[in-house]
Specification:
By secondary structure, the chain is an all-alpha fold. The protein has helices spanning 9-26, 36-54, 60-82, 86-92, and strands at 104-105, 108-109. It has one domain (5-127). It is 49% helix and 3% strand. Helix 1 (9-26) runs antiparallel to helix 2 and helix 1 (9-26) packs parallel to helix 3 (60-82).
Amino acid sequence: MTSGGNRNPANADRGGRDGRRRVESFTVQACLTWKRSTQRTRLNQITHGWANYFRHAVAKHTFSTLDTFTWRRLTNMLMRRHRWNWTAIRKRFTTPTGTWLPVTAGGTEHRPIVAIPVTRYRWRGTTIPNPWPATDNA
């Protein structure tokens, strides 16, 4: 395990709790009066900003967990707002073959953060500065 920076798995777990808290605070009853497209846009901004911050950590599983949590909160919010049951959600957001469609409202869809690549080490090659002075051996 590497030490330092955001490569520590504990940092990704802490970020997962923070991201979960942000999504919970944004999908509470008080936010049900917002326009749906505005709400999805802001939720996408929050989750993608969080994911871009933690993408250098060991966070792929945390991204998946937060994605599932966000999707469940959105569908529960839709069920409360429109008084739908689970059957109505499934009929509205699945294709005839049974694959799930993204949750959309007013042309704005919920974008999954699992699609954000986790990059750990960037190859810098010869762009790393040399601490020693160049010697001319000519």
